[in-house]
Amino acid sequence: MGRRIELPSELGIIAKAQAGLVTTAQCRALGVSLTRVTGRLESGAWRRVTRGVYDTDPTPVAARHPDHRRRRAAFAAKLALGPDSVVVGACALALHGVWGLPMALEPQASLPGGRRAYSRDGIHARMFDGGMTVTEVDGIAVATPDWALVQAVPELDRFHAVGVMDNALNRGIVALDELDEIHARTRGRRGIATRHGYFGEVDARAESPSETRARLDCVDNGVPPDMLQVPVRDLSGVVRRGDLGWTLKDGRILIAEIDSDEHHDLAHLDADSERHNDLTAVSAVVLHFRKEAVYTPGAVSSTVRATLDAHNGGLS
Fold first, then answer.
1. Is 193 part of a structural domain of the chain?
2. Is the CA virtual torsion 198, 202, 208, 213 positive or negative?
3. Are residues 192 and 223 in the same domain?
4. Domain of 72, in residue numbers
5. Which of 61, 91, 77 is nearest to 155 (CA)?
6. 164: burial class by Cβ within 10 Å (0-12, 13-18, 19+)?
7. pLDDT value for 311
8. Domain AbiEi antitoxin N-terminal: where (predicted)?
9. In a domain, 4, yes or no
10. Regions of the chain with pLDDT less than 70
11. pLDDT > 90: what percent of the chain?
């Protein structure tokens, strides 16, 4: 058996920057022949994404972190359509760091100048939107967040659409006064006819997509929260905030703390637990909801309703 020739370290650096992906041209530029690329593919070390684009990460895609999977979709579109392409839609939102997107994204990119590209291997080549503004993220051309929302919202379900708009506003990725213009630009796009109402459900106070999902569940089932990011003074006099709040008949506040989110790590959960103990001792009834509840339709709202009934004598 011949000695295995290691790949150039520069190729690993490129792959890491591109969510594990490399192209035939990048390999060739670093002296990696098509024969060596073919050997990697035949051994299973690499996988073909589309013509001329390869995934160098041996980890099954489904087992990777959601953020990595979304970035991979964005780079797959970019590399498939070539150096002049612009990443658009939900993939652009992923590169802008917007939370709340579906775990699996369709790779999408466009070519400027009215040039046409063809979709292949699950990669969607979109027509370039007239007037679309473009910026650079991670060294590649990407639709600006406002245009990415125009392109993505008509293709997302309600929970994801409202979630990404909430998050983009909450984190200042787009400004509140841009939302009406974003909505106006979606008019006439395929899919938007059934989604206009999503814009009226956006709330910039939501600090995570899971909070958005829990809020919408409560709205749908007749127990909309009275408050979001509820200020409550704890035992030490420090003002803390609860995620969703309802005023109880006795003057206390029912707070729903939403612990379930891919961006909610153990440190956050520990802090929430400490906050729960302090708030409960003072002036609040606190409910905690983890992932299973947040993603089960009716689970959050039914618990909130039962708790309101118990404290308000069935008057919820």
1. yes
2. negative
3. no
4. 62-201
5. 91
6. buried
7. 92
8. 15-54
9. no
10. 1-5, 234-235, 260-282, 314-316
11. 80
